[in-house]
Amino acid sequence: MKAAIFFCILQVLSWSLAAQFTDDFSTGTLATYWQGDTDVFTVTDGELQLSNTAPESNNTSALFTLAPTSTAAITTWSFNLRCEFAPSTSNFATVFLTADQPPVNGNAWRGYFLKVGGISGSDDALELYRKDENGTTELLLAGTSGAVGSDPVNLGVVVARSTAGEWTLEVDYSGGQDYDPQGAVTDNTYSSGLYFGFGCQYTSSRNMAFFFDNVEVDPIVVDMEAPVAQSVSVQGANAIIVQYNEPLAQTSGETPANYNLNNGIGTAQSVSFPDGDRTRLLLTFANNLTNLNTYTLSLTDVEDLTGNVNPSQDLSFEFLLPEVPVLGDLIITEIFPDPTPPIGLPDFEYIELYNASDKVLSLAGLGLSTGSTPREIDPYVILPQSYVILCDQDAASALGAFGEVATLASFPALTNGGDDLILTDSDGNILASLVYDDSWYQDPLRAEGGYAMELIDPTLPNDCPGNWAASVAAAGGTPGQENSVNGSALENVAPILLTAFAPSSTEIVVRFDDVLDSGIDLTDFFSINPNIEIGTALLEPDRQSVRLFLGSALAENTVYEVSALTGLKDCIGNEATTTSSVQVGLTVNPEPGDLVINEILFNPNTGGVDFLELYNPGSKILNLQGLRLSNEAIITGTTSTIVETNTVLLPGEFVVFTPNPSNILLEYTVPNPAALVENNLPTMADDEGNISVYSSFILLDALDYTEDWHSRLLSDRGGVSLERLRAESVTQSEGNWASAASTVGYATPTGINSQDRTSVIPPTEDFFVLPEKTFSPDGDGFQDVLEIQYSSDQAGYLARIAIFDAQGRLVRQLEDLELLAGTGSFLWDGTTDEEQKARIGIYILVAEIFTAEGDTLTEKHTCVLAGRLD
Known about the structure:
CATH class of the largest domain: Mainly Beta
Number of strands: 62
Shape: elongated
């Protein structure tokens, strides 16, 4: 009888030839080599029949046997299958052609199978699939659509696979042997397998309706090789799993004495096959293993399913049992938020983590966020005192060339200017966090892109700006490696008090230029003059601001001086040895006349940014938060912005708004960096435009600027600001604006304007007056322009102003019938009508004034254009 052939093969261990497996179930009983749900299958009239006498509403049953196959030879599978129903999504059959593990529920087996129906009616077909270890299936080939969609299904099937992995499917849909080709496909993903079997998916009404017969697998491969242990994986503190290259006999799982570990661990306490997978052997020991130790596992007399015995094998492995990190174990040591333009690193954002503990840590399930929902990190194990690059999966290959990589399916975007970085465990507990900004580079040029910011000293707080610097590595960063700035000298400047404002009459908030030490009581480090007692001083969440709670209320219209005393430390330990002070008082919202536009840069150098300077000419303490900065001349682009931060402007002080204070510090001399406020500006064109300042809906000041107001002696107006001459003069007057001097770097943000004119028009009987009769247009900020002031006793005057040299030749027609205001001024920059610099010498200004009554008045004034003789 054919049913006995396979059984004999298993008994004759010396057989070296391939044979075939067949079973026609003619014995009337289920052979012992069938495994699985043997209690719900029976042999009826020479057929294998599903016979579940106590079914549930939905059921899955499988029967399988050992039938090793390989692409070493052409292989065929044939069988008959009958279903006494029309298949559906709840009732269908599966035939496991070749599987590397028993094809039962819960096993992550890999291999190939046939599915009979299970789609729907006219679409039901006989289909060939590949199944992968992760549970996914891939449809390789489908037979005639609808051929297995009716009742009954009666099939004779032949499947063949060539040595090159080409599969063919032939079917007789009447159950005979008159086979019709259904198609061919090539797939050689898995070259071998161990098991063949049947599966039934069914409801309670189909519990007796599946039949199988005439099974043949030709050839099967007779195993003549002893099993070999391939690897060891850690399962727990005292448990390991040994992976074998083939299934083992049950006896190998019943003999703990066959498995021994050195280094004092000894013989296994128990041996088992987890999840029924006989290629994986779970060993437990009485004693725990030590992390990072190397062990040798000795295996003796291990037997496979065909009786081949491996008498002795030693397998060495390093024991690594990852732990879940806690706060302080992991440190963020490198941040790469702006990879463009590339210097030498791939064009991908990343952060670097350092394992500062002596533990092996698992990153699986940890989350990384920039303030929003955490993105999960893929499984990865990081060793003690090791680095790993966190990046997007798409960046793994490129960044892997620099160091070890742990990936995220979606790496959170890092904002170039600054962002939150938060690392959490699976329960949402914070493991590491910091809030960086681009000032941490301590190098404005490298902050423009292509360079990473690196931690200098991992033993000091990593959320401290002074402990970071731009990478000095040639590639622009050191991902996965020790930082290029490691061990560099830390900045040693003590914290400096920058600003203060009073949100209420009993509170003052002071802000420093650095993050403060959060481990000390700050109350005794401040004083106020005129004297007000400080009850409590609390560090704000940004750690650069301190809120002072006062014992008594601040008085109105009074300027107080707040001092930070000696001994105050920043977050890396720099201690103040001198007192620093700022002024503060109760603020009011500005009204018209309280605030004027004092300087504007609308055409910055390439790579630079605009700025707007405001000035407080009065006696009020102004709160600028909520001001609206608007460009009334445009309808596209950024038409207006709002001042977001608490900004206090004391009498006689300046404030500069710019989107990038670091750039202004790099480009210009800034006398008072604390007065640089980061705030977006409306779009300002390089040639002409408008800037208007509103408090709520009240217009405080406005300027329609033009590049024509710049000195005509400038060959390049890029990066040159326009400065106001007098705060008390009309804003919208060309004569009240001049180019900043070259000697101050062409702009004076936060400082007194280089072209400031504080002199008052002297009393005179003339209509026009020259406050200074000598000028030298050399850009040194001293008498660069000739100012021509005027005052009139009534409206409606027109003026024509011309400049003549000592020989009476016209040099410059300065104004031609200009309608005059009540008071004002004109400027001569020392150029001719041909836009050339006039020669050194004496010049005569001739002014003709035309009254509303038709009278004409003429005035002459002498001036001197001075300069150095070459």
